[in-house]
Amino acid sequence: MPVFAYRAVTADGKLAKGSIDARSQEAAVGLLQQRRLLPLSVGAASEAALKNGAAGRTFGLRSLGPQRELFARTLATLLGAGLPMDRSLALTGELIDSPALRATLAQVLRSVREGKSLDAALEQHPRVFPPFYVSMVRAGEASGDLPNIFLQLAEYQGAANELRGQLASAMVYPVLLMVVGAAAVLFLMQFVVPKFAVVFQESGAALPLPTEILLSTSNVLREFWWFWLVAVPLLAAGLARYLSSGRGRRWWDHFILAVPRAGKVVERVLVARFARSLGSLLHGGVPLLRSLEISAQVVSNEKLAGAVGRAAQGVRQGRGLSGPLRETGAFPPLAIHLISVGEEAGRLDGMLMHVAQVYEREARAAIKSLVALFEPLMILAIGIVVGSIVISILLAVFSINQIPT
Question: In the chain, fewer beta carbons within 10 Å around the N or the C end?
Answer without folding.
Answer: C
